[in-house]
Amino acid sequence: MISWSDSGQTHEARWRSESGAAAPRRVVVADDTLPADTAYRLACEGTGLLWQGDFQNARMLLQALMRRADRKPRKVAARAAEKIAAATPAEAFHLHRQAQAQRARVLSALLIPLEADYRIALRRAPDLRQACEEAWGPPPGERMVASLRELLGLVGAHEWRKKGVEVPALGPPPNNRIHPHYGVFSPVRGEYVDLVAAAPLPSAALAFDIGTGTGVLAALLVRRGVQHVVATEQDPRALACARDNLQRLAVLPQVVLQQADLFPVGRAPLVVCNPPWVPARPSSPIEHAVYDEGSRMLRGFLSGLAAHLESGGEGWLILSDLAEHLGLRSREQLLGWVAEAGLRVLGRTDVRPRHAKASDAGDALHAARAAETTSLWRLAAA
User: Methyltransferase small domain: from which residue to which, for each copy (predicted)?
Assistant: First the structure.
């Protein structure tokens, strides 16, 4: 619970943070009269700004906070640039993550009250009830407070879910769209899907899809002619998302969805896995699709693969080498894990990324992103 004073009265509401951020210890009421400079100073001090003014003005204030967060004093910016220039790639990555986390904390200080049914009782407030229900489930029946930044993220996820993401490898439109749910990684980087679409199938009888996420690879395998797919996922949100997408694409009858950490029971002639690519600690639950602390999922897949492959079967590991360019994992280390797991490499297909950050020279990790390659490793029992 968080509490605040307004007109001499104390109020309370449940704190809601999808990122797992702690509730601000100090909360003050803010409205349209609050200057942006004052709001930024309070946010930097860790004070929560509970908005009681016009909703659209709150959005404008958030934009003003973003400009201030990104506009560093010249001396501060110069020192930061020098520090990054002298750092190793791994140190530069962690400095970048720290800066991003600090920015997120400041921008999350602008808070919006929600009624027990997710309504926002502010002037010119939009109806976000459907977006909240999709992300958070049924209304809890009590008042809540959430950051405006997170609420806008819910709105963005709701629009992605409605519109969907076109995946050309699934076939011609309109029956080739994946609709990501909130908190489930979207297949916006299509190069890894194209790798799976082009690799020769060792068998069309059965495949395991480990960590299915949106279900895009399970759907692709069925579209390629695989008769039966067992898709596993430990996140209930992702399982619901995969079920929705597989049903939309009319391939659900050929897919069994299981809630499991990594492998289902049994063996298959083809086992596919696209684990998180960066071995770093996630700063929020949503980041588990991107960051895999200690390469837990990658190592778990490799160590268990041989025991779940049929004789002559193949395991397909789809993995970016971004971690190698960031100094977070070496190619020798990866190949060592492959050998330790009793596996051998049958072949590897590479593709260069097509996303915008790969060509953005202003990105803090540009050098690593520009050198990145995504690969499909074909593995077999040694």
Answer: 178-318
